[in-house]
Every structure is written in structure tokens, then in C-alpha cells.
Design brief:
CATH architecture of chain B: Orthogonal Bundle
Structural class of chain B: mainly alpha
Mean pLDDT of chain B: 89
Radius of gyration of chain B: 21 Å
Helix content of chain B: over 70%
Shape of chain B: elongated
Oligomer: heterodimer
Radius of gyration of chain A: 22 Å
Low-confidence stretches of chain A: none
Structural class of chain A: mainly alpha
Number of helices of chain A: 21
CATH topology of chain B: Helix Hairpins
Order of helices and strands of chain A: HHEEHHHHHHHHHHHHHHHHHHH
Shape of chain A: globular
Strand content of chain B: under 5%
Distance between the termini of chain A: 21 Å
Strand content of chain A: under 5%
Largest interface: A-B, 28 and 37 residues
Number of helices of chain B: 5
Largest sheet of chain A: 2 strands, antiparallel
Order of helices and strands of chain B: HHHHH
CATH class of chain B: Mainly Alpha
Number of strands of chain A: 2
Chain lengths: 497, 124
Amino acid sequence: MQLWQNLPLVMIVLPLMCAVLCSVLRKGAARGLMTGLSLFSGLSMGTLLYLVAQRGESYIYVMGEIGAPFGNELRIGITECLIGLLFCLVLICSILGGWRRLSQEVAENRMHLYGSMVCLLISAMMAITFTNDLFTAYVFIEITTIAACALICSTNKGRTLFAATRYMIMNLLGSGLFLLGLSILYCLTGHLLFPQIEESVTALLADGRYAIPLALACVLMTMGIACKSALYPFHTWLPNAYASATPTSSALLSSMISKMYIFLLIKIFFRAAGSLVFARGIGDILFVFSIVGIILGSVDAIREHHFSRMIAYSSVSQIGYIFLGISLGTEAGMAAALFHILAHSAAKSMLFLSANKLREVSGDSDAFRDIRGSGLRAPLAGVAFAIGASSLVGIPLLGGFTSKVFLSQAGIELGGWRMVTLLLALALSTALNVAYLLRTTMTLYRPGERYPLTRSPLVKDKPFTAAMLAMIAVNVALGIWGGQVMDLIYKGIAMFN
Amino acid sequence: MLQLLYEHIDVVVALALFGIGFTQLLLNKNLIKKIIGFSMMDSGIYLFLASYGYIESRIAPIYVEGNTDPSLYVNPLPAGLVLTGIVVSVSVTAVMLGLTVRLYQRYHTLDIDEIAELVRKEGK
């Protein structure tokens, strides 16, 4: 084994240590450590992606010399590294983009704890991305839940406290379901590592034994993840949590935390229980839920009168797209889902951060009439919002367009009633997206009476400018080089088994 | 049917606990009762895991002089999972209790609907 292959373990353990360290540091030092650590994670993830792609095959990192079937393993392949790299990019940009707001909203004597929670989050993100073991994934899911709750209520306002409580309740229900599903699956198969579970599940299915408990375990785990990542009927906690938290937190919540749960679900579906999920029709049920989510999420967003809550509701609809890709059960569907994770993470974090700047120059108001003309007061934020919104709507040359193309291709390949429903839902949802996202973009450039249309002094914010330029670059790159990214994803999927 | 239920009494109890806890966490308005529900829900799962980890007439996987036959021992993994799970749920309970204390200090009620109402009024 080569030395670089130890890198994933360092990337999980180092943030854990930093989290402890952060809690005793002073404000500035903690913030520096948090930023430095996210830069380090991004760099090492990039290096790892390059090395694994060079190597041409994935590898399994055995923890503590106890190999399968009992030990604990990490598995490192192209898909994991690619998703992880984007998460790290989002992380860096969210911290920089919300930098000024973070120092204003989070109390002086709490900043080090905020840093500590971000470090925990990085560690959990790495572990969930790389782990090959179901129970390790569960433990880190809970760590994420705690860290995310702290990130939401870091501003210590009544609204955020309440949002954090709602978030915790829904997430605890989700993790309870997930844990029960996991326990049933473990009792039936006797394994916790994905490849071994796959083997047992295939054998059990061939025998025809335990058909109902197996399906139940799968349904429970899927419902658990759906609660945690806000698939349509389980999304009630989302708008409050996203809209009331500080911008860094809401960007992280929408683009990283909910996405890493979905990535875990993809791993479970396609590496552990695939034959089970798609043989027993669980995929079809998920398909229906995601179609409903896509449409009703957009309808909710249109009915919303608050700027940031509207962006939050659009997440519900976009999460539907990702679940739609997964539920098709084909390789193309999974690839489209993975691509949409990338595209949506890049676009949504940019939307949250730029929306925050736009509100900041409009007297911190969340009402549509006040943000009129804010695109002229904060030009870069306006442009970033327009690009993010266009990407979600699906304007060519941006990430969202490419992922919609791949999603439709996956549907057409499948044929039948699902193709028709998928294409209709995509068309309808694009129209609905135009109705709220592009309408809001136009509002940004319409003259309003309350605030002047000249450049606001608040736009002199260097970290924000850097973050926005980077995010715009990522969004455009995902659109232009979508094909190449997709090739990489396909290579990663080929390594999955 | 009754015979079947009796044979799997541990699973029945575990799932009943899970169900009661789940509905409490979801539907009860009182925050403290919600947290109690959460604890019950998790305990149900641990009972389920622990009862499946136990095999009658086998002993705990602690090496005793002379007993070298591995078929004498039970698999230690389920017990390990339960222990890890308990640690996780204790820390989550602590976070939930902390949130509840902060909410109570601010709004002087534990009823989540009332708190929602107060938060809405505060926002305007």
C-alpha cells in the first residue's frame, strides 16, 4: 500500500481533532482553523481524485487490520472523490461568502464553537462519503444532525431556536427509522459492510426467504433518509431552518448536509441492496414521491412571499429531481442523480449567499418589494443570483441544464409510463421554475422606491467577491464541461462494484 | 398466531416500544414528552438488536480458561452496536434538552404549538 492511500483516514480524523481544538481557541484563531481545514480538505480531496483517476480503480482501506467481514472499511473511488470535492468547494465558498454576516450574527463568545461544529461537519461529511459500513454511516449521520442543529441555532434568536428544534425532531424521526431499518437488515444478513450485505441479500432473494422483512428494512431506511434530506411530504422543517439560519449555515445545510444523506442512500441502493429495492417496487414508490415533490415544491415556492423562504422551497423541488434519478434504478438514472447533486449544490449555495447580500443592501428585509433594485445596489450578487436561478431553471451552458438533459435521457432510455411521467413533470416543473426564479431575478433589476439604485458601500466585501466568482466559475464549468464530468461519473460507477 | 407472538415476544415488545416512542416524538406537543418518546424509540431498537444478538445456552464472548471452542460464545458485534447507539442517543438527548431549556427560558412554555404561535408573533 502506498503512503497516499492513508489520506482518507487523515481527512476524517484531522477534522475531529480540530473540532476539539477549536473549542478552546479564541474567536479569530478558531475561524482561521475552520477555514484552513476546509481548504486542506478541498486540496486533499482534489489530490485523491487525481490519484484514484490515475490509478484507474478504486481501493478499500481497511481500518485496524481487521478485514471483511467483521472490520470497518473505507472505500475510495472516483464518485466519492468527485462528490466530496464539490462538497469541499461549497464549504469553502459558504464560509467565505457568509464571512461578514457570520461575524455579525454569531456572538463573539460563540464563534469558536461555531468553528468546532463546522469541523465536526467536515469530518462527518468525509466519513459518510467514504465509509463502506452501514453502522459507521449511522453514527456520523447523528454527528451531522447535532452539528447541523448547532449551526442553525448559532445566532441565538427565538426564530432560529424554534427552527432548530423542528429540525431536530424531524431528523430524529428519520434517524430512528434508519436505525431500525439498519438493525433489521443486520439481523437478516449478519453483515454491515456493503459488499457482504449485497451478497447475502442476493442469496436471500434467490431463496425467497425473508422477502417481507427485507423489503421493510429497505423502506425504513429510505424513509429515514427521505426525512433527513427533505423529500416532499417530510419537508416541513426545511423552510424555517434554511431561511432563519445565518447564510453560511443555510448554504451548508442545503448544499452539503442534505446531499450527503442522499449520496449515502445512493451507495446503499446501488452497492448493498440494489437487487432488493428495484425487485420489490420500492423504486416505483420513490418515483411517485419525487414527482409529487418536484411539482408541489415549486408550487409552494410560488406561493411564498418571503425571499429566502422561496429559495428554501425550491430546494424541495430540486431534491425531488435527485430522488427521481435514483428511483429509475438504472445506471443512467443514478449518473443523472449524481450530476444533479453537483449542479444543485453549486447553484443553491450560490443562491443563498447572493440572496443574503441582496437582502443586506435592502435593509435586511425579506419582502419582495424591498429587494427591488438590489441587483443594481450589489451588482455581483445580482449576477450570481441570476446565474444560479438560470441554472436551476435549466438555461443552456449552466449545470442545471446539463443535468436535466441527462435526466430526460435516462427516462427515455427506460421507456414506458415512467418516461411519459418524467418528461411531463420535467416540462411542468421547468415552467414553474421560470415563474418564481426568473420572476425574482427580474424583481432584482426593477426600480423600487425605498432604497437608492446606486452601488451600496456594503458590497466592498472581499471574501464574498472571491466566493461568488468561484461559485459562478463552478456553475458555468459544470454546464460547459458537463459531458466530461459525466464521463468521470460513469467511470466512478463502473468502479462501484 | 398467539403462539407466534409469544415465541417472538422480544421483537413484539421492541417494536411496540419503537411505535409508542415514534408517535410520541411525532405527535406529542410537549417538548419533554417528545424527548421521552425519542428515548423510548431508541431503546426499542436497542432491545431488538440485543435480543437478536443473544443465543440461548451461549455465553458472553469473554475468554475463560479452557473454553477455546468458539461455538460457546455469542457474537460480540450486536452488543457493541447497542453500546455505540446508546452513546449516540444520549448525546442527542442532551442536545434536545439543551434546546428545550433555551426555548423555555425565552417563551415560558413547553407546548410546541404555543411556541410556534409566539415565534410567529415575534417575527412581525
